């Protein structure tokens, strides 16, 4: 059997778990190379806790380089910038190219930028919650400036779980230390739509109690110094953190891969590209064409097991297996004050014990990996 080259683009949840499995059971007759812009990848489930000061960065970052070493894989620091899927070549920044037999893409997603938004727009800073490293460094810089600012209006754009958690966590971190800071949570539609009413109500009460101003049904457009709602009213803000729905990074445009209308990779049930069966995609970057499901970490985690089996089966000349998305998933929202709320379908639970439960689950996940973080 000839040795096959498997290139892993990006070290998201699915690839981190794949590497974890390879430590236990290496792939037969294959050399595996991981390409990642950073040695460390964040576990976003713990990001609100990190913002709130409940965790340190090294507790919620997986050390990919060390994970690769343990799994006998090559780690290459670099950003995938171009894919030529017809000729099976992946290029990274700096010009290095990798010819592969199989490629697996797990490069995650970024928050959508509403039309007209760019960095430091019209006197207002606009920053995405992802990439996480960039967001954390912005937050640290902000904390240096806040002691001399008499007021600072901080907006979080996005009324989903991530937006609510980030707004509560920022309030927890900043508002007591810096009394001039006010927090706003803004978005189109209603708060936590798709979640049970009890969850919406609970989070609404938290926002009121913590003096976070909620602006619903705001189709935000950018105006000097803030955001304007559809009725011409301006919410004056000094900075806005984007926690909007997921969009792909643009590097796969022109790759020849079949992409959906947003630019995510269209895959079959075996997580293989519809156009190029030697390419897999997992996590947020993949759209399962037969049964699209939400872009969330719990699905990325479930993709890992199918990806591992299918790479193994291909190497052994066996048939691939199908991924079946779970119909319901557990959502646990960190209120950043020692409490959390959880929902699975219509069942909801809340309180301090729910935070401890979430903490236990997150620790259990992270214990599988070597951890670390360096700026
Ligand atoms: C604040 C917040 C809280 C969240 N909480 C939860 C939660 O509790 N539960 C949940 O299920 N989901 C949660 N999510 C959603 C979750 O973050 C994503 O669904 C999940 O991270 C997707 O995982 P992934 O494996 O696709 O990629 P990610 O884990 O996002 O990793 C992508 C990796 O690819 C790398 N990369 C990016 N571009 C390139 C490139 N061009 N070349 C090489 N590497 C690249 C990145 O550096 C990163 O290491 C949360 C999101 C946010 C913003």
UniProtKB/TrEMBL annotation:
Which domain of life does the UniProt lineage start with? Bacteria
Co-factor(s): FAD
Q: Pfam family example for this protein?
A: Pyr_redox_2
Q: InterPro entries in the record, alphabetically? A: FAD/NAD-bd_sf, FAD/NAD-binding_dom, NADH-Q_oxidoreductase, Pyridine_nucleo_diS_OxRdtase_N
Q: List residues of the FAD/NAD(P)-binding domain.
A: 6-304
Q: Which keywords describe this protein according to UniProt?
A: FAD, Flavoprotein, Oxidoreductase
Report the protein name in the record: FAD-dependent oxidoreductase
